[in-house]
Amino acid sequence: MEFINHTFLQLKQQLDDLSKNKERLEHECDSLRNELARLNQKSKVLEPTTEISSASALREQALIAEIIRLRRDLNRLQEASESRIRCLKNRLQAIGEEAFKRHTLELKVSQLHTAALKYANEFDQLISSNKPHNYISEDKTKCKEAHLFPLPPIALPISNKVPHQNTVELGNSLRSTLSSIVHTN
Questions:
Q1: Rounded to 5 degrees, what are φ and ψ at 134?
Q2: 147: phi > 0 → left, psi -120 to 50 → alpha, else beta; which?
């Protein structure tokens, strides 16, 4: 019987140890449940932050896409403005060249006009010294033989800004041209 008592005591001891372990485990289980509940509350508190961070990430992506689009638009506008500036520079250069050509032509016209006036004055002096003043009323055949024809009217702008050397050169070329016209008639 002692053996049974001893076994009984051992079993009782084990039962007490097991009940203590059970209480300790239940206590640990309760503390783990409390911690789990606390962690769940923290995760609930963190979830809005996560939602906010995901919303923030979405907003950031949208802003990056907007920045990329705006950069493309800026590049396109810069290319268009550079093209317009090149076009305007070309137009300005063409206008400058045209103004230079017009000025040159106006200068030549005024030089020709001055030379023509000088030549006409010299021609009138030559006629008045060689012939009497009534040569126009003479027979036209005699005038042709003497190569005395009045100059055609000249309708050019008058300008006295022509250098003397250019006037002489133009007068000489005008004389040769006019004399060739007179000889052909």
A1: -100, 30
A2: left
DSSP letters of 93-120?
HHHHHHHHHHHHHHHHHHHHHHHHHHHH
Residue 100 above 70 pLDDT? yes
For the chain, where are the alpha helices, taking DSSP H only? 2-130, 140-145, 164-184
d(CA 150, CA 143): 10
Distance CA 52, CA 59 (A): 10
Sign of CA dihedral 120, 125, 127, 133: positive
String of b and e for 84-97 (b: at least 16 CB within 10 Å)?
eeeeeeeeeeeeee
DSSP state, residue 18: H
Q: Which two tokens stand for residue 87?
A: 């076009």
Residue whose token pair is 């911690």: 35
What letter would DSSP give residue 136?
Answer: G
pLDDT tens digits, 118-171: 888 887 777 776 655 444 445 555 555 555 555 555 554 555 444 455 556 666
* Alpha-carbon gap, residue 143 to 147, rounded angstroms: 6
**How far apart (Å, rounded) are the C-alpha atoms in residues 126 and 113?**
19
